[in-house]
Amino acid sequence: MECQITTKNLKINKNKSIGKVIIVVEGESEEFKIMKHIFTKILNYNYISIKRNKVIQNEFRSKVNPNSTVIVANTNSSNITDALIRTGISVKIGHDLDNVAKADLVVYSAAIKNDDIELCKAKELGIETIERGTFLGKLTKAFKNSICISGTHGKTTTTSMISVCFLQAFKDPSIQVGAVLKQLNSNYRVGNSEYFIIEACEYVESYLKLFPKTEVVLNIDDDHLDYFGSLDNIVKSFEKYVKLLPDNGLLVVNYDDINCRKLVKNTNAKIISYGIDTKNANFVARNITFNSNGFPTFDVYYNDNFYKTISLSVPGVHNVLNALACIGVCHEYGISKEDIKNGLLNYTGASRRFEYIGKFNDVCVFDDYGHHPTEILATANALKQKHFRESWVIFQPHTYSRTLSHLDEFAKVLLNFDNIIITDIYAAREINTYNISSKDLVNKINELSQKAVYISDFNQIVSYVKGNAKPNDIVLTLGAGTITKIGPMLCNNS
Fold it and tell me: Domain segments of the chain: what residues?
């Protein structure tokens, strides 16, 4: 059987059936991003489509060699892994050496450590391995227009906004986004056009493996310092990223961000700028107002000429900036003002982006992915546009390194909430060599204002909130780890 994928060369005999493939991933949705492209863009098989957790297309199974199997190794079960199982795909929860036996290819994400037992075994046996970012980069080559959205904050939202507008205009794009997009009931879409809209992650510089025709840079902030070490190194990384653009490419960049403005000297591509505070940007938002839900309406000006009045169905001034980035991309790709307007109005948010979970005792519960002080502040400001009695935040810090490096900033931004509950740090990929705990954050907050309590157990958190929250309060669960469990527990819809 001839089936070989390497980082240097892509060589597949499409007349041969692929044998056994192991996909080693971290998280609950990466397998779909990879499998979709394996079976469609490279092998020309049909694809899996999930809609309301139901597999509606699985014809690819009949095209795969009956003796072949696809194994998805995942650390947690989920609705997505359950859907894979219903198609007959083998899903392994946890990593096991048996998963690697007779594999032709191992695809792994950047979150997989070098000492992962499956990855080590694959290398020991001489099995081809490829990092997901590298593999994804090869796929961007297959599209005439790969539109890559990057930045420290707002990538998922902006990728989703652009995707919805392209769908509104019947551009039939392929899409890969970092959360479930409600219009797709999935985090991906396989289109039949020259457009590939992709969320481009800067962590471990994965975005440097892509081949973009268009780049959006939303902002540059000090995050992932466990890898980059300093903000200066992050800026330098983005400079390398911008240099990937061809001369006939497009850079859409936030001129309100001083670090983003530095990037324009690193490319010969066309520059489209946007902003709120920067008057000399191409696209500028003026006359911003908010309704009772915190949703903004604003006038867009293009080169100082009125362009369109835009209304959003997501809250916060930060989403005005995200929308401007979307408008800049869509305008350059010939999408009409009306389709842009309707697409943005129809976008109601991706999962875990100020997502409404439900109610208990007339208390509204929301969930948000924010795990950086800048993101938390944006969410807090958006929440202030809503009408409520008191606010509650339940925060799960994400990684020891981030908690330590931003301890003071976390304490200050969390004071924007009336009641603060801090639970244990979600370690993710790290070992606690930093001598930091959530109690340190609680102490730092209480030095400023006696608002914070530490509760480790999720059941105790639920009991505490239900015993103290009053009608018309708002509860926000916040963080990038397992904090998502609390909202459904509060609303009794788990």
Answer: 3-133, 143-346, 355-491
